[in-house]
Amino acid sequence: MDMLRVFFEKSEEDTSVYFSNMNIWKCGREYRKHQGQYPVIFLTFKDVKYDTWDETFEKLKELFQKEYGRHKELKGSSQIADFEARYYEKVLRGDVSKVELASALSSLSQMLHEHHGTAPVIIIDEYDTPIQQGFSRKYYDDIILFMRNLFSEGFKDNPHLSFGFLTGILRIAQESIFSGMNNLKVSSILEDSYSSYFGFTPDEVRAMAAYYNCAEKYSEICEWYDGYRFGNQEIFNPWSVIGYFGNNCKPDTFWISTGSNEILSDIMALANEDLLEKLAGLLQGEKVLTQIDMNVVYPQLEADPYYIYSFLLVAGYLKLESFAPGLLGTHMCRVSVPNKEIASVYKKEILSKLLQRNSLLSSSAFKIQRALFSHDTGLLQEAMQTFLYQTISFYDSAQENFYQGLLAGLLALTDSSYQVTSNRESGDGRYDFQLRPKNHLLPGIIIEIKVSKKEDGQELHKSAESALRQIEEKKYRFQMEQDGISPVLTYGIAFCGKQVKIIKK
Fold this sequence. Notes:
By secondary structure, this protein is of the alpha+beta class. The chain is 44% helix and 15% strand. Strand 10 and strand 11 (429-430) form a beta hairpin.
């Protein structure tokens, strides 16, 4: 968005130098004639994250105060009316009410138009960040009312506007923030318009890798930062790709470090057991078929946790594998985790926060990990039993895939020491879980689970033994042993309701 500001904004500096060797300059005079010709109103709401509506309003006043101050040409301008000059000074002093500030966009655009003789361009970045915060901090109605008035005056039927750009995660259509604005052109990740312009394409990433003499790193960049799809265009995360090259081609979680995932954890806290199971499955490479609504609004997320998929998709935490039109403007989409960087978000920012909803639950989860690392079957049995008592209803626990999802979520948190995979071929069959050590000092681990029909201790033990026999008979250890990993420990785990039995070999 700052690139758009620099391209369009009138300036004493010759800003054409930033674009003269770019593709847009080759598109001809029709494009070049717009460069540096407009006054620009530029606001970013990315840091408007406060606990109360009063604090939020103070921050909004400060943002407009700075933007008004940036347009010093209006101070003492003979082209604007006296009442406009008084309003300009009032905003500069921060002495405006909520009603008065709601006119700040329209008033500034009118004054700039009158002074320059050219209607301005309005650019607003992350317009829905204050709305996210209002949803989290329970002042949603206040922020919606203010934003509705601000944008209605600034964009709807504003004769002092050449054109405007806004970015945000959600369209927020149903809140009527853009009420009556039928002139909006909305470009979502499901559409092809501009799909190749707001991220790096594969050809661009290959060219960058060649420029930095590391063409052989392309596959690693794909694993970590590829996987997004805008319309039919494959897209890499630009911030993370730049971070990768700037970090001597060492992968890290660059994008998720740029902001807060607080809204995600708030929504994830509403997830039911079925959702948790599916989200854990996503970490194991599974794809989920779900309904996606591009018009979802924050109160809907609270009313129906399944809207979380829509939010995660538009926020960049899911990859669109395929989609088809659904009912009432929705889409049926198959989604997956796009890359290793985002997988780490689920593990560290989402699953870990879910496990921290209370201290006992957190204690059980990390005790399970400690037991695996120390090969302490007794501790593992105790911790898993406690975990089951604390987390599930008897009616939740029936099928093997339920326990697989539960265990997948716990094992995902071991990713710093183990590469966790599930349902992959090895030997003569497909194991439930394999933990391949990243450190040669750690053992390999194979886990097979069974569901017993009876909670009787003897029956559970028989089922756990059956799981161990399956590991041996199907030679699940074969691949790790072939790769020189030793020892390879095997665990048979049997579940029934809230009961569990674990034996090791």
